[in-house]
Design goal:
This protein has 2 domains: 181 residues, Cytochrome c-like domain (Cytochrome Bc1 Complex, Chain D, domain 2, Orthogonal Bundle), CATH 1.10.760; 163 residues, Cytochrome c-like domain (Cytochrome Bc1 Complex, Chain D, domain 2). 29% of the residues lie in helices and 2% in strands. The chain has 14 helices and 2 strands. It is globular and about 60 Å long. The N terminus is likely disordered. It holds the Pfam family CCP_MauG. InterPro entries: Cyt_c-like_dom, Cyt_c-like_dom_sf, Cytochrome_c_Peroxidase/MauG, Di-haem_cyt_c_peroxidsae, MauG/Cytc_peroxidase. It is found in: Periplasm.
């Protein structure tokens, strides 16, 4: 389903910091001892060489507890926008799995963004290491600064960004803890934000509990699933639905493919037949590369927490998971760049799944097991600014 987005078991709670949060005179609630961002206790299916291959963390910017703490404050700080009204978290809300429920988010002056805001959870495991729907950002460090500079979204130049951050009394100490001295630069802002975003990993869903209970065998019935959810899992993994061919692959096609059982990403941008032609307002990657073969191709977010990240697709055209399933069942359009996995083999025609209503419902039921309820309320990812009553 091409665009729906290390070691205790997944049910383990994120450990509390040694000290409870202390509210500073600047209105920040941060623990004296930071949360453990650098070494989250991930389950077995998030480990090993395959997981390491998908991790886009650069050697020059590893996640540190103090760096991610600084990034968390920056992520929630409206001082990163022109008029002090918008933060990164305005369009990437924790309760929505770090996505936005609006079809298009609103910028600092109320203008609409050009595309739907995809979740930033699990960005660390996007193997291709490029970001935005059209993959115009070469790294996450590049990506986190672009909305800040966008004239609709947050509206600052990098010089203005540094000045705004420098004007806040709480930042020198945070920068010193993260980087060894209090100097505030755009590069350090970028690195801290990227550390925090990479630390946001979803690994405590019912799916994760199920695969652990099944001893890592994704094909076995999960004991905690209903019959409908296990049926939906079978459809997702098997040829009748065919979803796993795209969403659990490990990279560009190669023989034999290795199944990635954790991340639910499509490894490269793809065309999933939303439109039949290139005569549309948004051609995604093709508008960046100019390559006709890239027209209509878009990055896909992870399916983790997909029940919470609608509306769906780059333009938010589908409101519900049921609509998305209908698209893949019978609505795929014959775009010239349609992914071959969505074609009738040996023809240019889109395939049809011809699922029954019961099968469609079971597929949606399975997708809902990917919701990580703990992520939505985990204090280490929450707004650190204390709101006045």
């Amino acid at each position: 389903m091409a665009a729906l987005a290390a070691c205790e078991g997944p049910a383990a709670e994120t450990p509390d910091p040694v000290d409870p949060p202390v509210i500073t005179e600047d209105g920040l609630a941060l623990p004296e001892t930071p949360y453990n961002y650098a070494a989250i206790d991930l389950p077995a299916h998030f480990q090993g060489q395959l997981a390491a291959d998908q991790d886009n963390t650069p050697a020059g910017n590893p996640i540190t507890d103090d760096g991610a703490t600084l990034g968390r404050v920056l992520f929630y700080d409206v001082a990163l926008s022109k008029n002090g009204t918008i933060a990164c978290a305005s369009c990437h809300q924790q309760e929505s799995a770090f996505s936005d429920t609006a079809r298009r988010s609103l910028g600092f002056e109320g203008g609409e963004t050009g595309r739907n805001s995809m979740t930033v959870a699990d960005a660390r495991y996007y193997r291709n290491g490029r970001f935005f729907w059209d993959e115009r950002a070469a790294t996450l460090e590049d990506q986190v600064l672009r909305p800040i500079q966008d004239p609709v979204e947050m509206g600052l130049t990098l010089d203005e960004l540094v000045a705004n951050v420098s004007a806040q009394s709480y930042y020198p100490k945070l920068f010193e803890k993260a980087f060894g001295d209090p100097a505030i630069t755009a590069d350090r802002i970028s690195r801290a934000l990227a550390q925090f975003v990479r630390s946001i990993v979803s690994y405590r869903s019912r799916f994760d509990e199920g695969i652990e209970a099944a001893g890592g065998d994704i094909n076995a019935p999960f004991p905690g699933f209903t019959a409908e959810e296990n049926a939906g899992k079978g459809l997702f993994l098997g040829p009748a639905g065919g979803c796993a061919v795209c969403h659990l692959d490990d990279g560009p096609p190669h023989p034999p493919p290795r199944r990635n059982n954790a991340f639910f990403y499509i490894a490269v941008p793809t065309n999933n037949g939303l439109d039949a032609t290139t005569d549309v307002d948004d051609n995604g990657l093709g508008e960046i590369t100019g390559n006709p073969a890239d027209m209509g191709r878009f990055k896909s977010p992870s399916l983790r927490n997909v029940a919470l990240t609608g509306p769906y697709m780059h333009d938010g055209r589908f409101e519900t998971l049921e609509e998305v399933v209908e698209h893949y069942d019978s609505g795929v359009q014959p775009h010239p760049n349609l992914d071959p996995r969505l074609r009738v083999p040996g023809t240019p025609e889109p395939r049809k799944l011809n699922l029954s209503p019961e099968q469609k419902a079971s597929l949606v039921a399975f997708l809902k097991t990917l919701t990580d309820e703990k992520l939505l309320v985990d204090p280490m990812y929450a707004d650190p600014f204390v709101k006045e009553p």
